[in-house]
Fold this sequence. Notes:
By secondary structure, this protein is α+β, with helices and mostly antiparallel strands. Among the domains are: 7-59 and 75-122; 173-239, Arc Repressor Mutant, subunit A (Orthogonal Bundle), CATH 1.10.10. The chain contains 7 helices and 9 strands, in the order βαβαβββββαααααββ. Strands 1, 2, 3, 4, 5, 6 and 7 form a 7-stranded mixed β-sheet that branches. Strand 3 (41-48) and strand 4 (51-58) form a beta hairpin. The N and C termini lie far apart (111 Å). Residues 242-248 have low confidence and may be disordered.
Amino acid sequence: MTDKTELNLTGAKENKCVWLVKVPRYLSQQWERASDKGEVGTISIAKKQGKPEVSFRLSEDLTSLGAAGEKDASPQVPRDHPFGMHAVGGQTLLTYSQSSTDALSLEGTVVHRAECTPVVNDNYMKLKKMQIKECTKCPRLSQQLERAITTVFKPVANHDFNIVYEKKKKSEGKMVRAERQVVLDMLFSAFEKHQYYNIKELVDITKQPVTYLKEILKEIGTYNNKGPHKSTWELKPEYRHYQTAEGT
C-alpha cells in the first residue's frame, strides 16, 4: 500500500501566471527578518525601447545586516536590484506550495524567468569582502574533557634510535686499538678462510673500532659497491696470494 498525496489544482482553474525569480541568498535572508505585516520592498516595471525593465528596491528598514530597524550597522545591504529577464523557452513550468500537513497546491504557471542582481556599489563590495572573510575563518569547536589527557604529546626521555646509537658508541668505545700489524695479521688470516666479508663481520673478528678498521682495509682491500657481493670487502689482487706456495 502506497501513500497518496492529494494535489490542490485551484491555481490551474484560476489560470494564475507567476514569475520565477532567482534572488541572492543575502536578500532572502533579509526578507526573513521582516515582520509579518512589514514591507520587504517595491518592484517597478517600465518599458524602454519596447523591452520591459524591471527592478526591485529593498525596504530601507531591511538594509542593515543587524536586527531590523538598526540603520547604523555596517556594511549595508544593496537596495537596488535590477532584473535580468529570460524567456521560458517553450517549457511548461509550474510552481507548487506545500502546507504544514504536506498538502501540495498548484500556485500557477511560470510565464517569465528572471534573475535579481545587485547594483555593484560600495555597499555591495563591502558586503562581498565580509562574506569572503567569514568563509575563510576556521570553525572552532569547544569540547569539555571528562578527564585529563596524559598520554598525548607526552615528552620522551630518549628515543629508541638514540638508545641504539649510544649502546653502539659505548661498545666501540671499549674497543682498544691494537697495533697495525696485529690487525693486518687477523685480517689476512680471516681472508684465508673466506674471500668476502662485510664490515660487521670483520669488526666481530678483530674487535677493532669501525673507523680504525676501515683505514686499514682501504690499504689492503677493495669495497664492492655493486654486483653479487655488494657491501662486502675483499683483498686487493696483490694481497690475495700473499703467502708463497711451497715448491716455488
